[in-house]
Amino acid sequence: MTRYFGLIDGKAGAYGVVFPDLPGCTAMGKTMDEALTNAADALRDWAEVMEDDGRKVSRPRSLEVLRRDPEVKVALKGGAGLATVPLVRETGRPAKANLSIDSGVLSALDEEAKRRNLTRSAFIELLARETLTNVA
Predict the structure, then answer these.
(1) CATH no. for residue 26?
(2) Residue 21: exposed, middle, or buried by beta-carbon count in 10 A (0-12, 13-18, 19+)?
(3) Is 7 within 8 Å of 18 (Cβ atoms)?
(4) Same domain, 22 and 75
(5) Overall number of domains in the chain
(6) Is the CB of residue 53 less than 8 Å from the CB of residue 74?
(7) Burial (CB count <10 Å: 0-12, 13-18, 19+), residue 1
(8) pLDDT per residue as tens digits for the range 40-91
(9) Whether residue 85 is found in the same domain as residue 105
(10) Domain interval for residue 37
(11) CB 19 within 8 A of CB 87
(12) How many CB atoms lie within 10 A of CB 39?
């Protein structure tokens, strides 16, 4: 999974994330956690739009290279922080997977899926998506 570095800055109630390697890809949130979660969604959507337009999504620079970037240096000196944000792509194509899970955990999982009116597969996908994009 590809991960990009985002610069996060702001104050309570208004945080923003920008991606130095992806001009125009930004996200916001009332909390840092919300901004970072939104950043994962923005990153996915931005990459999809770029590719739909026939443009290539650049590879992320390493942390060492990024820290030498003059604009990043200024942002970090100004109080911004760096966070890694995963690029989780959706294909729209289901794939079968054979998983081994403790029977007690599986029972609890099935109960919660039923409570939420989801299939087991949909619930596992929801959990995986939340876990993969939780960058806090």
Answers:
(1) 3.30.160.250
(2) middle
(3) yes
(4) yes
(5) 2
(6) no
(7) exposed
(8) 999 999 999 999 999 999 999 999 999 999 999 999 999 999 999 999 887 7
(9) no
(10) 1-90
(11) no
(12) 29
